[in-house]
Predict the structure.
Amino acid sequence: MGRQPCCDKLGVKKGPWTAEEDKKLIKFILTNGQCCWRAVPKLAGLRRCGKSCRLRWTNYLRPDLKRGLLTEAEEQLVIDLHARLGNRWSKIAARLPGRTDNEIKNHWNTHIKKKLLKMGIDPVTHEPLNKQAAASSQDSSSSPAEHLPQPGNNLDDQVKETNGVLLNSEENSSSSQAENSSGDDSLLLESICSDDSLLNSMWLDETPLVEALWDTTPNLENTNNNMSLLPSWEENCAWLLDCQDFGIHDFGFNEIEANALQTVGMKEEGH
DNA sequence: AACATACCCAACCGCAACGCC
DNA sequence: GGGCGTTGCGGTTGGGTATGT
């Protein structure tokens, strides 16, 4: 019944990655590109399953990842996107350059969920809790999933309502901007939320919002960060694949490699 | 200082989707 | 069209760290 787990082989290591393993993986990906994850551990000399390698790379080692907590604007964007997309973390992450689905999922479960509950908003339906209680007393058969906005199902109304709740919330009106939240981020969020075509494209899976983000605000972080000059990973994952044809150093990726390896180094020092 | 509890997040698991033959 | 292998995704867990008593 079902497929065999990929990690059931003897000798396959599990648990936290060591700096040495990180280095091996980074070096392998940067020289060979992302190909057939199943073969990566063998070729890279790692005693890990391919799945674990992929996860480690996409969630932690990728050179284009942002670090640190989500900014206020990013958080607001996540809330807004969640109201429309539900728990589709990968889709949400695709709209936030440098953020992973895992990171967003974790942040949602540990921070945003509580924040919304504190604000009296149901984190699942994005409806005010008291309103929902009243509604559920009228119709006890409706499930939370049914409250989620669906494409073509009065989306406009739900979007307006959701925005109303979120943008006029106590949290937003009374609290000042977080220290690390830039005005650019706020403008970005505003433009995204007010741009119907962008929102529609999310449902239709057309042009990723990431592209728009990178186009309109090419640098959400400080301008000294070289990585901000890179295209988004989802958009241009081929840049690494191309490396194997031309050699990564031809593209000046020494900096990237150094950056990635520096990440490992920082981790080594920190732990 | 020692212990308990809460919190955070990296990593794992299992299923679904996809692509190839 | 069905079988099989690979990758992607979302839910969950467990260990480390921070905070409270």
In short: The two ends of chain A are 41 Å apart (CA to CA). Residues 72-216 of chain A form one domain.
